[in-house]
Amino acid sequence: MQRVRFLARVTALAVVVLVGVGACALDPQADGAGGSTPGPVGLTEGASGASASPTPEQPVTSPSAQPSRTASPKPSRSPEATKTTKPKPKPSASAGCPQGEHQRAVETYLTRLGGFGTLTVDGEQSAADCAAIKKFQVRYGISPSSGRAGPTTYDVAKRLAATDTARCKAGSRLTFCVDLTRQTVWAMRGGEVVMGPTVTRTGMSGYATPAGTYSVGRKNPREWSNPYEVWLPYWQQFNGGIGFHETTTYLHNGAIGSHGCVNLLHRDAVRLWELGSVGTRVVVIGRRPGT
Length: 291
What we know:
This protein is of the alpha+beta class. The protein is built from six helices and nine strands, in the order αααααββββββββαβ. A hairpin with a 4-residue loop joins β5 (218-225) and β6. Pathway: Cell wall biogenesis; peptidoglycan biosynthesis.
């Protein structure tokens, strides 16, 4: 009887020991009986960038010692947002009409001459100034007629504004007046100007147009020049082979000149032709510079 009791106690003790060992070997994180013991990190899983041990080229740094540069990235900005654009200037009143180097002088001369519009003498181009200068350039055959107060426009305006019509002693008769110094032509009758001063180009060096008092001897609407083989429109001869006629070249080319004749723009040659007749008095004064 005592032997049976001893064996029962030994058997109960063995059961208690086995249950305790099995309980400690179980993984409390396992989701079922028979879970395997987890291995160390890095051995049972492939190392990732987050869990891999740092290499010597990537020393470990504490977040408090060096804040991450990518923790709070700056928002990207589009080229349109970063591009600096300047406001477009408002078009000026004289847009498309360049200002020349003789702006103030031309404004002054055209104001003195009158008849070309209202100009403001301030040396600054405006829409009104541009229109007036263009009108002047068209009237006197200046090319291009862009409204720019350049050298030719300045020269023509200055010569016309400086012309003193009273210097021509016309008397009561119709008289064609030629100012060689200023290279201008006009017509008078009875002390009154019947054709205002306009531009001309007279004889070049070696062929200077002589000053003096003459009269129209012959007229021809289309005269042929034998020595130079060229037609001379609206011809009015007054001194040998010298006479008034429409120019056959650009009048404002100052590097050349006539062989003594008085060259005129088309509209002026026509007007002088309409006014004159055989016997009309011609007065030539001054001397063309350089001749």
